[in-house]
Design goal:
Shape: rod-shaped
CATH architecture of the largest domain: 3-Layer(aba) Sandwich
Number of strands: 10
Strand content: 15-25%
CATH class of the largest domain: Alpha Beta
CATH topology of the largest domain: Rossmann fold
Helix content: 40-55%
Largest sheet: 5 strands, parallel
CATH superfamily of the largest domain: Response regulator
Distance between the termini: 84 Å
Number of helices: 10
Structural class: alpha/beta
Oligomer: single chain
Length: about 270
């Protein structure tokens, strides 16, 4: 019993039976395993209790006066608040038990009287495990859908920003902490003579001799903590020309990543005919 007590997680279980002795027996069995047990003796009270504080599992007697277990289960499944609670039916061996109806109204399992501790423990544990896995799957699906939605929004925003940035006459670069270009606009491609694919596979060091790789980290840290500012440098084109350039930069944060957004204004008019 102690081994079971260590392994099994706690859960809240509602036991519904019109016979007090059955309630006491089931409660004693499950309490020793660490479950929190609530006991009610009729269907109407069970519905009110489940609505007020939905349990993780319901053990529901079938043969009860006024409202039987099938009817209680139908009411539970009709309510958005309680419809996902797993219901295990309880039936005596000498009672007429319609298994088909039990599953048709929403039951997930059944236990017969007289109770066997091993059977009660196994059926309760199995159905609680299934319910936990279902909840995890639902939560993961919600997170996945949110991630897809966020990604679509980000992609739309990126496409929109590219549309506007491609209309700028100055070169625009987004640079990450590894000196890699993560975005370049059309003007940068035309002026430097590279395709966008080529520039996105390059780093700052490839076009700017004033930012060698060995000193990039320290220069990145220096620029990162400066206010938006500007400085002069050199950009080297694909055909080997050096273009004097005034670079303005600001900080950009996207999905918890830091970037430098730089705008390059060339101090001499680049010959774009080459």
């Amino acid at each position: 019993m102690d081994n079971h007590q260590v392994r099994l997680p706690k859960a809240n279980i509602l036991v519904v039976d019109d016979i007090p002795d059955n309630l006491r027996l089931l409660s004693a069995m499950l309490t020793q395993l660490g479950y929190e047990i609530r006991r009610v003796i009729n269907g109407s009270t069970a519905l009110k209790t489940a609505q007020a504080a939905p349990p993780d599992l319901i053990l529901l007697d079938i043969m009860m006066p006024e409202m039987n277990g099938y009817e209680v289960c139908q009411h539970l499944k009709a309510s958005e608040r309680t419809r996902d609670i797993p219901v295990i039916f309880i039936s005596a061996l000498d009672e007429v038990f319609d298994k088909v109806k039990a599953f048709a109204v929403g039951g997930v399992d059944y236990i017969t009287k007289p109770f066997s501790e091993e059977e009660v423990f196994a059926r309760v544990e199995n159905n609680l495990t299934i319910r936990r896995l279902q909840k995890q799957l639902i939560e993961q699906n919600i997170l996945l859908q949110q991630e897809i939605c966020d990604r679509k929004k980000a992609e739309s925003a990126l496409r929109l920003s590219q549309f506007y940035l491609d209309r700028f006459k100055d070169s625009i670069f987004f640079v990450n902490s590894n000196a890699q270009f993560v975005y370049v606009n059309e003007a940068a491609c035309c002026i430097l003579g590279y395709s966008r694919e080529q520039l996105l596979s390059m780093t700052v060091h490839d076009i700017d001799p004033n930012f060698p790789a060995q000193t990039w980290h320290s220069q990145w840290q220096k620029l990162k903590y400066q206010e938006s500012s500007s400085f002069e440098s050199i950009h080297r084109t694909q055909d080997g020309r050096n273009l004097p350039v005034k670079i303005s930069f600001s900080h950009l944060e996207f999905k918890e990543q830091q970037y430098l957004c730089t705008s390059a204004y060339y101090l001499t008019n680049p010959d774009l005919s080459n």
